[in-house]
Amino acid sequence: MRIFLIGYMGSGKSTLGKRLAKHLNLQFVDMDHYIEERNCKTIPQIFEEEGENEFRKKEQKALKELSEFTDIVIATGGGAPCFFNNIDVMNQAGVTIYLNINPEILAERLISSKTERPLIKGKSRKELISFIDESLEKRHEFYSKAHCQITKPDVDLDELMKMIS
Ligand code: S3P
């Protein structure tokens, strides 16, 4: 059993991932934390010191490694499915679930989040909303390749289990 949760920043992948892993008695891994541990650097440090392209290479490597783990729920970084052939790797390695959450909810969550996210650092509410709209337009083709989608922000685990079984 290997489940990948994909979706935009703030869509709730880690929160749902932890709940789902507990429910199914599986291990939970947050891909960003995995990358940070492997590289002994935080995500903002990697972006600042090495740039986004290097971060994407590290993300691809982490994904390849995690795709070999079994009995696991993986919360991926928001951009992970949208680079290289990562979404195909995930679709082949396990079940992919897209948390397709309304951009207004994403913006509110990101504004109140304590996690530092390099791509949206320093943006005003207005800039953030247009950034989310623009990036979702570009990312849609990748996210929509997921095996299943959730559109409700409060996920019912029993419903989700039916969807993926
Ligand atoms: C990113 C999302 C982040 C993190 C990095 C880039 C993105 O993960 O991987 O800051 O490109 O959307 P979360 O989705 O967990 O915030």
Per-chain topology:
Layout: E1 2-6, H1 13-24, E2 27-30, H2 31-39, H3 43-50, H4 52-66, E3 72-75, H5 86-93, E4 95-99, H6 103-112, H7 125-143, E5 148-150, H8 157-164
Parallel strand pairs: 1-3, 1-4, 2-3, 4-5
Helix pairs in contact: 2-4, 3-4, 6-7
The structure holds shikimate-3-phosphate.
Bound molecules: shikimate-3-phosphate
Strand order of the largest sheet: 2-3-1-4-5
Number of helices: 8
C-alpha Rg (nearest Å): 15 Å
**What value does the average pLDDT take?**
96
The proportion of strand residues reads 5-15%
Residue runs with pLDDT of under 50 for 5 or more positions: none
Q: Care to count the β-strands? A: 5
The end-to-end distance, rounded to whole angstroms, is 11 Å
- Secondary-structure element order, N to C: EHEHHHEHEHHEH
**How does the major sheet shape up?**
5 strands, parallel
Shape: globular
Characterize the structure shown.
This protein has 165 residues and is α/β, with parallel strands linked by helices. It is built from eight helices and five strands. The chain has helices spanning 13-24, 31-39, 43-50, 52-66, 86-93, 103-112, 125-143, 157-164, and strands spanning 2-6, 27-30, 72-75, 95-99, 148-150. Strands 2-3-1-4-5 form a five-stranded parallel sheet, with helices on both faces. Helix 2 (31-39) crosses helix 4 (52-66), helix 3 packs across helix 4 (52-66) and helix 6 crosses helix 7. The longest helix has 19 residues, at 125-143. The radius of gyration is 15 Å and the shape is globular. The model has no long low-confidence stretch (mean pLDDT 96). The structure holds shikimate-3-phosphate. The site of shikimate-3-phosphate (S3P) has 9 residues, from loops.
